[in-house]
Amino acid sequence: MNTAIEAAGLTKQYGGHRALDGVDLSVEAGTVLGLLGPNGAGKTTTVRTLATLLEPDAGTARVAGFDIVRQRREVRRRIGLAGQYAAVDELLTGRENLVLLGRLLRLGRRGSAARAAELLAQFELEAAADKPAKEYSGGMRRRLDLAVSLIAAPEVLFLDEPTTGLDPASRATLWRMVQDQVDQGVTVLLTTQYLEEADFLADRILVVDRGRVIAEGTSDELKRKVGGERLEVAVADGSALAQAAAVLAPLAVAPPQLDERQRTVHVQLPDGMGALASAATALDYAGVTVEEFALRRPSLDDVFFHLTGEATGAPGPREAAKAEASV
Amino acid sequence: MSSVLAHGGDVAALTGRHLRHLRRTPEKIIGVALTPVAMVVILGYLFATVVEVKNTGGSYREYIMAGVFAQVGLSCIGITAIGVAGDLGKGLIDRFRSLPMGRATVLVSHTLADLAAAALSILLVAVTGLAVGWRVHGSFLENLTGFLLLLGFAYAMLWVGALLGMVMRNLEAISGVAALLLVLFSFLSSSFMPLTGLPGWLRTVAEWNPVSAVSEACRQLWGNTGPAASGSFPVENAVLVSALSIGLLVAVLIPLSLRVYRISATR
Ligand SMILES: Nc1ncnc2c1ncn2[C@@H]1O[C@H](COP(=O)(O)OP(=O)(O)OP(=O)(O)O)[C@@H](O)[C@H]1O
Ligand SMILES: [Mg+2]
């Protein structure tokens, strides 16, 4: 497997403010890297730097095998970019937007027209193809933007928050369209605020905050960092809470945590169905009336709060408790 | 060679885009031509009956036409400025910059397409002028040179617009500044009045204003003036001075705009 995107120590300074503070990343060809981070983390700056729009103050990067500073033109021939705000020409029709970009990417008049027709069909824009883009809805505009970025069949695709502001149905459509590209072997770097999006599309996830990479791994690895699956037991009667905890304690790998308000005990059990079965039996045997018995995997939200808790505001008491439990 | 062709193709594609814009928003041309056409009617039709141009013997209607044409050039500042700022604001420039294009392509095609708008506006003003009784005299070659000078001046002003658009970015602010430049430079010139009545220092400033040089040159090339009035250098050598100042403007503005483009697009 070769590497499609590789960056080392990328730094970008705006006045006294470090937007990027030594970002390292590497994406294998044909995979998807999700860049996750709060507002102002440096996601857009990273994308713009890798797409040769910004010159880094320090650090180096290669995209599709070429240096982003010294071989800019070679890089530009091989990338597609859909920025944070859909960059379509509103006065032109969808088709004209595509043909224009096709011509600028040297596909020729006829080649551009053919490719435009193909993409319009693929992105379900045929009906609106000859309407000016200013009459498009947000979702159509996003789809057109993505189609435009794919006009020259790029090897590497940069998507900066591709589904921000879309309804769930349009988001799912767009995900499918991105997935199609990945299936065809395109390498994708996408930034997002939606954790399900990273969960769904990305093979690996990079969490950035204040211009630094603070965690990296697959979605599962990151979730494991926060702690494995936990059992949540809600009891009918608050006074039985301590009893439930006492019953579960011998089975757990860490002391159970109590949530008085929710009348819930959280415990981390060893892996496997056996532990789960024993927990159920033990509770039943002790005569605790259980209202809810659920196994919960940490979501990427938990990961996100866990990792950037200090930066995004005070972590909730539960998050803090979890963080303690996992170390 | 093939890269020259490729660049030419890029410029053609983008110029085509801007010409489409022009066709879909014809109000742009009206925006450029409206003030000058109004000036032709107001000055040439209403004022001409009471104003008499001193020392020249020519009619006021003929006198102001060259000034009005120069004003078309000045109002070109606004269209390019707004076009460039609009592209920057909508992130289109980012997209263009992520393509393997020459660094001058975007601005060159903006100004080329807007030059077409300028030519169209000049035509509109000419038609209006002819309707109120303006005529050109002298040789065809001289007359043509006058119009070429005007186009050259308009082209230089389009680059002023490109610069303004990149620096200011805000569309309302750009309209304001463009309107101010229009008024300032056309009234501090010999466009609508001979400068003989101005106090010394102000007169020198106004005489060296490129707008004065261009309108004086056109008047001379179109035979719209009596025997030359004052003996100052820029007036006597108006054609030379205007050609030189247009050349100088373009030589300074183009590289400067390209530099600013590089910087402003990476902000
Ligand atoms: N042109 C600029 N001038 C000055 N500061 C900038 C500029 N662009 C970005 N920054 C700063 O750099 C930091 C990173 O910005 P960036 O746009 O990369 O964040 P982001 O992760 O994309 O955020 P968001 O989720 O809000 O899009 C921010 O603090 C931002 O204020
Ligand atoms: Mg961003």
UniProtKB/TrEMBL annotation, chain A:
GO process terms (BP): daunorubicin transport; doxorubicin transport; response to antibiotic
SMART domains named in the record: AAA (SM00382)
Keyword Translocase: yes
EC number of this enzyme: 7.6.2.2
A GO-annotated cellular component: plasma membrane
Residue span, ABC transporter domain: 5-235
Membrane disposition: Peripheral membrane protein
Cellular localisation: Cell membrane
MF GO annotations: ABC-type xenobiotic transporter activity; ATP binding; ATP hydrolysis activity
Superkingdom classification of source: Bacteria
Keyword Iron-sulfur: no
Gene3D superfamilies: P-loop containing nucleotide triphosphate hydrolases
Coiled-coil region: none
UniProt keyword annotations, A-Z: Antibiotic resistance, ATP-binding, Cell membrane, Membrane, Nucleotide-binding, Translocase, Transport
SUPFAM superfamilies named in the record: P-loop containing nucleoside triphosphate hydrolases
NCBIfam families xrefs: drrA (TIGR01188)
Entry's family note: Belongs to the ABC transporter superfamily. Drug exporter-1 (DrugE1) (TC 3.A.1.105) family.
Protein name in UniProt: ABC-type xenobiotic transporter
The species this protein was found in: Streptomyces termitum
Lineage, broadest ranks: Bacteria, Bacillati, Actinomycetota, Actinomycetes, Kitasatosporales
From TrEMBL, chain B:
GO cellular component, one term: ATP-binding cassette (ABC) transporter complex
Pfam family, one: ABC2_membrane
Subcellular location: Cell membrane; Membrane
Keywords: Antibiotic resistance, Cell membrane, Membrane, Transmembrane, Transmembrane helix, Transport
Membrane topology: Multi-pass membrane protein
Transmembrane spans: 29-51, 63-85, 106-132, 144-166, 173-193, 239-261
Ranges of residues in domain ABC transmembrane type-2: 27-264
Superkingdom assignment: Bacteria
Principal place of residence: membrane
InterPro entries hit by this protein: ABC2_TM, ABC2_TM_bact-type, ABC_2_transport, Nod_factor_ABC_transporter
Gene Ontology biological process terms from the UniProt entry: response to antibiotic
Single annotated GO MF: ABC-type transporter activity
Family annotation (PANTHER family): NODULATION PROTEIN J
Family according to the record: Belongs to the ABC-2 integral membrane protein family.
Protein name: Transport permease protein
Organism: Streptomyces termitum
